Amino acid sequence: MTETIQRKINDSAFARWTALVLIASTMFFGYMFVDVLSPLKNLLETSRGWNSTVFGLYGGSEFILNVCGFLIVAGIILDKMGVRFTGLLSASLMVAGAAVKTYGISEYFCQGGFGFEFFSSFLTDIPASAKLACLGFMIFGCGTEMAGITVSKAIVKWFTGKEMALAMGLEMAIARLGVFAVFSLSPWVAELGSPSVVRPVAVVGVLLCIGLLTFLVFTVMDRKLDRQTGAAAAAGEPEEQFKVSDLRRLFTSGTFLTVAALCVLYYSAIFPFQRFATDMLQSNLGITAKQASDIFRWFPIGAMVLTPLLGSYLDHRGKGATMLLLGAILMTACHLIFALVPLTPLIAYSAIILLGISFSLVPAALWPSVPKLIENRLLGSAYAVIFWIQNIGLMAFPIIIGWSLNVSNPGVAEQIKEGVEGAAYNYTVPMLIFSCLGIAAFLLGLWLKAQDRSKGYGLELPNIKK
Ligand SMILES: NCCCC[C@H](NC(=O)[C@@H](N)CCCCN)C(=O)O
Fold first, then answer.
1. Mind telling me which residue stretches traverse the membrane in this protein (predicted)?
2. Residues 132 and 37 placed together within one structural domain of the fold
3. What's the 148 CA to ligand 1 centre distance in angstroms?
């Protein structure tokens, strides 16, 4: 009897890498929007009256709804409804949130436009513009995090048994390019004409719509894959058998929770730092926001170049747990340099590059390790639970850092607002906080490696079996 084996769309290298570029483009624009205001802290202080505490609150707001449970719901939606529905929903949420945030910081709103009175009537220490921008960022955050888990699951679907870690690495590399792009463009767009925080936000908001469109194109390819694999999703049913009660399995798996804890510790010292980095460099080196941004933008570039290479290394050689450990060590070293060493541009560049290497090692190893611990039908929820735990840190740390900056620098915010020459923050305390997170991540990495050795999860093994 002859058996015909049908070639599936993802067996074509061209098709699967095209699918990757399409979904990665959604994340590229998403990551641009996440950090569009990061290089503009100073301009927000002078033009919108946001001090460091407000800026920290704004940074944390991206994750508030996710932490309140949205991400867990997002994981369930993903496992029940599949990557196409969830991806389109998440990209639409990003666009909606971006629109609200743009309106919140617009001149029209700030000069008493629709809703201004209401947003000025509570928590009066916080400017109305910040409150509405936070609301928009919360909605956007639901979209971007939901998109993050969807993209991870889509990559596992398209690349299992193929170049999975490389694909994840490339997806993250493209996202990092978005961060580089926004750190390069945002201060420049803000300074075109009279300085404005609205202009860059509006421009990147429009780019998000392109991200929605690229995901739409991906859904056409993904439908074809489902038809070929005969997946039930093609008939509008769940892609895999998933029960909500399975979630208990995730919360009782020690190793899975260790990976999640490592993730929250590590990323809490990366993304919140990213939001304050321009201001930290500006303050420590006495340079402009544009110059500080020009130094910091090399951080995502370092990560961009190395993440796919390390992903490929992991596919063929393994050593995932060791990479996690090394990443935590490098990150701690870098933050300690910023905390304790008198900064020169050369030291700043070196530390930023070190951090870029660290930011390749950990993501390249962490995300592809999840399918080794959790079976496919639970994967959406597994990524969602890790993101959820991680989001608690991402929400809390910008607030903690903003607050610690204010408390350790009494009177400086007022001086900056009044335009006092030479007024700058001392970032020692916030940077020591970030360093402690790195040390804790390192200790957890040691524990994870020991667990892997005794229980044989295969974290040190390659993804592609010869
Ligand atoms: N498919 C992507 C895997 C996760 C990549 C990871 N992103 C996150 O962990 C997000 N939960 C947090 C993003 C924060 C900015 N919105 C990454 O390394 O970027």
1. 14-34, 54-78, 85-106, 126-152, 164-185, 197-218, 250-275, 295-314, 321-341, 347-370, 382-405, 425-448
2. yes
3. 6
Q: Is residue 250 domain-shared with residue 397, that is, in the same domain?
A: yes
Cα 395 to ligand 1 centre (Å): 13
| Same domain, residue pair 298 and 359 | yes
Say if residues 87 and 147 touch (Cβ distance below 8 Å).
yes
- 3-state SS class at 253: coil
DSSP class of 343: P
Q: Which residues lie with the beta carbon below 6 Å from any ligand 1 atom?
A: 34, 144-145, 148, 151-152, 171-172, 175, 267, 271, 363, 367, 387, 390
Q: Considering 169, 204, 228, which residue would you say is the last residue of a domain? A: 228
Total-model pTM? 0.86
pLDDT for residue 333 is more than 90: yes
In a domain? residue 2: no
Nearest ligand 1 atom, CA 175: 19
Quote the ligand 1 centre to 335 CA distance (angstroms).
20
CA 362–ligand 1 middle distance (angstroms): 12
| pLDDT band with cut points at 50, 70 and 90 for residue 229 | confident
Here the CATH number for the domain that contains residue 439 is 1.20.1250.20
Q: Where are the alpha helices (DSSP H) in 111-233?
A: 116-120, 128-159, 164-190, 198-229
Query: What would the pLDDT profile of 22-64 be if each residue is shown by its tens digit?
Result: 999 999 999 999 999 988 988 999 899 998 889 989 988 999 9
Cα(387) to centroid(ligand 1), Å: 8
Amino acid at 93: L
Query: Which stretches within 35-127 are classed as H helix?
Result: 41-48, 52-61, 64-65, 71-81, 83-105, 107-110, 116-120
* Rounded-to-integer distance, Cα 257 and Cα 261, Å: 6
Q: For residue 286, give its domain range.
A: 242-465
Question: Tokens at residue 392, please?
Answer: 């608690």
Top mutation candidate among 174, 271, 359, 391 for ligand 1, by most atoms within 8 Å of CB = 271
Give the confidence band of 315 by pLDDT, cuts at 50, 70, 90. Answer: confident
**pLDDT tens digit string along 101-153?**
999 999 999 999 999 999 999 999 999 999 999 999 999 999 999 999 999 99
In this structure, what are the phi and psi dihedrals at residue 180, rounded to the nearest 5 degrees? -60, -45
224, 267: one domain: no
Q: How many other C-beta atoms can be found within 10 angstroms of the C-beta atom of residue 11? A: 13
